[in-house]
């Protein structure tokens, strides 16, 4: 009898441990004292055998977590860690730029003033997410959409207190390829297959990759508009290449010669933000030095223990693991998904840092125009502290477009302005 009771107790203990999706962190190396906000980290197993172990960070809203929106943040790449977003983009905490041997964190509270946020390392191979089987590492756009949907269902089943919160998909860069189809997948799943239902309300995308051929085609007009190439070269490119700069196979020899001149004018630019120097990230005077420090911090064994990372699950942590291969880029354009999401009535905020040359804002404006919805609030400046922070326009499909003046490819270049924009939009206010 005593042995039976002991076995039952062990079984209950195992089940209760399995039910826990993560751990609440009380402290982090580099931060003095207890964390002044609630941070949970953990893994959710995805797939038939849960071989895909998806690592996440969850930060609870400081305002009203029971009612505030719930966001999932997808960092781009594909292959970039969401830890980058926490420290530099949404800034729940911030890494001070100091010596690699002495890295400090300070507390900021931008987006978590208004929202609960799940930061997900995806696909497997990004950040601390890993596969228990080496044969399951083949990933694709459409596959990731289904994996993230399954992750969300399992996460919400273990956090049922957030089931009724308004839910939004958010992210930047390559998330533009994953976010819109994920919104559609969640919406259809709510009606067809999947419990619990997810209270999906819309999506937020920054400098989103939508159709790479389209975006490549707008880099030359953008370069001309930003005074990176001469009027004469631009006019010749337009005439000789017939406005088709992105399709390599259709270029004539003369067109290729002119594009080579364009490349010589722009090849030394830091295309994520054209005003910043393109320099070695190990230089303390460089903006990118923060990436070097982040790598040092995330690869520290004390940090990994604090974050509850499974020992031996990954080798070196990298901000962006572009070796997530083979990756099947099987969604060529997400414009059809934006159309379907508009028909379904979902809200959307699309924003662009206007000094990003990776996804030029004029390319984003072009596909938004292609949706062919009428303008309900025409082009105008939006303000922060009586200063122009960017420009905005709203459409009849509940889509708001905004530029971030002086912004780059990700929110880290203008975090305060990006937060104010988000705060107003998520609250239903005009920018």
From TrEMBL:
Molecular function GO terms recorded: sinapoyltransferase activity
Protein's UniProt name: Uncharacterized protein
Species annotation: Eruca vesicaria subsp. sativa
Entry annotated with the keyword Signal: yes
Entry's family note: Belongs to the peptidase S10 family.
Annotated keywords: Disulfide bond, Glycoprotein, Signal
The organism's place on the tree of life at top rank: Eukaryota
SUPFAM superfamilies per record: alpha/beta-Hydrolases
């Amino acid at each position: 009898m005593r042995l039976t009771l002991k076995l039952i107790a062990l079984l209950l203990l195992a089940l209760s441990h399995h039910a826990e999706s993560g751990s609440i962190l009380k402290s982090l190396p580099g931060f003095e004292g207890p964390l002044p906000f609630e941070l949970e980290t953990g893994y959710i197993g995805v797939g038939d055998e849960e071989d895909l172990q998806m690592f996440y960070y969850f930060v609870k809203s400081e305002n009203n977590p029971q009612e505030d929106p719930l966001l999932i943040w997808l960092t781009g790449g594909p292959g970039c860690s969401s830890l980058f977003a926490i420290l530099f983009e949404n800034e729940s905490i911030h890494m001070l730029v100091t010596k690699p041997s002495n890295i400090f964190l300070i507390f900021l509270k931008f987006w978590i003033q208004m929202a609960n946020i799940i930061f997900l390392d995806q696909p497997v191979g990004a950040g601390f997410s890993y596969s228990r089987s080496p044969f399951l590492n083949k990933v694709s756009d459409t596959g990731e959409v289904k994996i993230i949907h399954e992750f969300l269902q399992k996460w919400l089943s273990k956090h049922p207190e957030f089931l009724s919160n308004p839910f939004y998909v958010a992210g930047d860069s390559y998330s533009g390829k994953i976010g819109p189809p994920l919104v559609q997948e969640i919406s259809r799943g709510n009606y067809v297959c999947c419990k619990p239902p997810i209270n999906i309300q819309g999506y937020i995308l920054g400098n989103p990759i939508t159709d790479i051929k389209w975006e490549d085609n707008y880099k030359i007009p953008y370069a001309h508009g930003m005074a990176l190439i001469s009027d004469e070269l631009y006019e010749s490119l337009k005439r000789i290449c017939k406005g088709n700069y992105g399709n390599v196979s259709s270029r004539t020899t003369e067109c290729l010669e002119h594009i080579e001149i364009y490349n010589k004018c722009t090849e030394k630019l830091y295309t994520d933000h054209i005003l910043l120097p393109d320099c070695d990230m190990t230089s303390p005077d460089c903006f990118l030095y923060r990436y070097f420090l982040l790598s040092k911090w995330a690869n520290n064994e004390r940090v990994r223990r604090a974050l509850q990372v499974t020992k031996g699950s990954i080798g070196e942590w990298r901000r962006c693991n572009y070796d997530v291969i083979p990756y099947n880029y099987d969604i060529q354009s997400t414009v059809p998904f934006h159309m379907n999401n508009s028909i379904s009535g979902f809200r959307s905020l699309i924003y662009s840092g206007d000094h990003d040359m990776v996804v030029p804002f004029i390319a984003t404006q072009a596909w938004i125009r292609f949706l062919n919805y009428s303008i309900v609030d025409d082009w105008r400046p939006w303000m922060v502290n009586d200063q122009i922070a960017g420009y905005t326009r709203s459409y009849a499909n509940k889509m708001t477009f905004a530029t971030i003046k002086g912004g780059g490819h990700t929110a880290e270049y203008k975090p305060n302005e990006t937060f104010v924009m988000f705060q107003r939009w998520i609250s239903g206010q005009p920018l």
